[in-house]
Amino acid sequence: MSSKPVVPVSTYAVVFTLLLALTALTTAVSFFDLGGGLNNMAAITIAVCKALLVILYFMHVRYSDKLTWVFAAAGFFWLLILIGGTMDDVLTRPLLSPETASTQSEPR
Amino acid sequence: MSKVEVFRQHHFVDVDQQHDASWLGMWVFLTTEVMFFGGMFACYFVYRHWYLQAFASASNQLDVVLGGINTAVLICSSFTMALAVHSAETGRRKPLVVFLLLTIVLGLVFLGIKFYEYHTKFVEHLVPGSSFRFEESLARPAEIFFSFYFAMTGMHAVHMIIGVGLLTALSFRARQDRFSPIYHTPVELTGLYWHFVDIVWIFLFPLLYLLGRHL
Q1: A-contacting residues in B 10-29 (Cβ below 8 Å)
Q2: How far apart are CA A48 and CA A51, in angstroms?
Q3: Which of these, A83, B24, B28, B82, has the minimum number of CB atoms within 10 Å of its CB?
Q4: Reported ipTM
């Protein structure tokens, strides 16, 4: 952790170029109708790729020790539990108990 | 006392241990930030599932081009931040100050564009509240979408403003030559914070601006 190598500017430049290219790509893709599912998949996949690039290179996690990896991963793993666990309920409730799924009516 | 030891506080064995403690502490803080934003993201997914049509229709009111430009601006600011950390690591004072200032400017450009977008929403009656106007059948759930929009981008903007404040303080200290290859932990940790805020936007952009364009 302490004696981390200094990341060369060229690495930052490559990551930066990739990030800009992915931003252009995700914006461009949104102007074409690929059928909703594929559009959404593309948008989310590109976002995850961009986040990974920032975390691994800009935030130096790639060059850090295992303890940093654990801490960086912990937050996102927790996020997976939160969103996965919540959506698991929301998506399956109408199948399991239609009478309690009435929250899908108009809000007010 | 050697130059290295000047920066060591008495409860640490050496400067490496001191640095590692700060570094890991920052990651713990960022994990709590992931949880904080994560709660809003989870809520957003639930409501998007419940009111898919309204969320798509409301999302189409946002300007994708402005959102895309802002994403690019933020990525540029992350790049200049990474270069600032690099300058600190290699002990170059002038580039450090310049890159910190560039990061501040790009952060302010982002906030400026965001301000313009907010202004447009006020003019178009898309701010939740008594003056909210939307296609009758979708009005209520569309209002929920805009509540999410303002809560999430608003909290993100607050983080940006805090970041600009931190960077301003850093640039003053950098100008006074307070950082060196041996000690530049504040620059490094502010960098982590800035990149984290960038990542939040990397997810907010597709979620709020892009997902609703095609169902």
Answers
A1: 16-17, 19-20, 23-24, 27-28
A2: 5
A3: B28
A4: 0.92
